[in-house]
Write a structure and sequence with these properties.
The structure is a single chain. The chain has two helices and 15 strands. It is mostly beta strands. The protein is globular.
């Protein structure tokens, strides 16, 4: 909805969850009055809650991760989930879906996820281990920014390393931690 004037949300915390209809994120995230909210979340017609993570089934039969508990410590993003007796691959993490989850210590990203959006796990200073599924082709800017406790990264992506979008993806992460990659992928990951 159109916002008239600058005082509509004066005094309202911009970090509270703002729930919006599916498919409207790009509109809300760029519109005056709405774009200042940092925790915008789309709501899906069908959703399921598994181990602290909410998955939504879009109208296009795409399963997305769109919300996680704020106190979740061990995150395992499923490779697939079931809706109405049908198994669907989980392919997408919605930007900001983990913005309130700052207690994560271990992170396992399912094999069907294609990309890790900008700022997804930013400032998660308790994160120690990341296991990246074999289908991840890109990692967004600041996705793991300031994850200062990170001790190990395991990437299942063989051949070509995931594309790193922007210089801040691993800013604040020690460059001396072990990064485990599939055999035969060293040249791709080191260039």
């Amino acid at each position: 909805p159109y916002i008239q004037g600058g005082g509509t949300f004066t005094g309202v915390s911009k970090s509270i969850p703002l729930y919006i209809p599916e498919g409207t994120y790009s509109t809300y995230s760029t519109q005056y009055g709405w774009k200042d909210f940092t925790n915008i979340r789309e709501v899906y017609d069908k959703s399921t809650y598994i181990n602290g993570i909410t998955y939504g089934l879009s109208k296009d039969n795409v399963v997305v991760v769109y919300m996680a508990d704020s106190d979740i410590k061990n995150v395992e993003i499923a490779s697939s989930v079931e809706f109405d007796g049908i198994e669907y691959p989980v392919t997408t993490i919605i930007e900001n879906s983990f913005s309130m989850s700052k207690q994560i210590e271990t992170l396992i990203i399912g094999d069907n996820i294609k990309s890790i959006p900008n700022r997804t796990f930013e400032n998660n200073t308790k994160l120690r281990l990341i296991v990246i599924g074999g289908s991840v082709t890109s990692i967004g800017n600041n996705a793991f920014y300031n994850c200062t406790s990170l001790e190990e990264i395991n990437s299942g992506k063989a051949g070509t390393a995931p594309y790193i979008q922007g210089g801040g993806t691993f800013t604040g992460v020690s460059k001396s931690i072990p990064v485990y990659i599939p055999e035969g992928s060293l040249t791709s990951y080191s260039t």
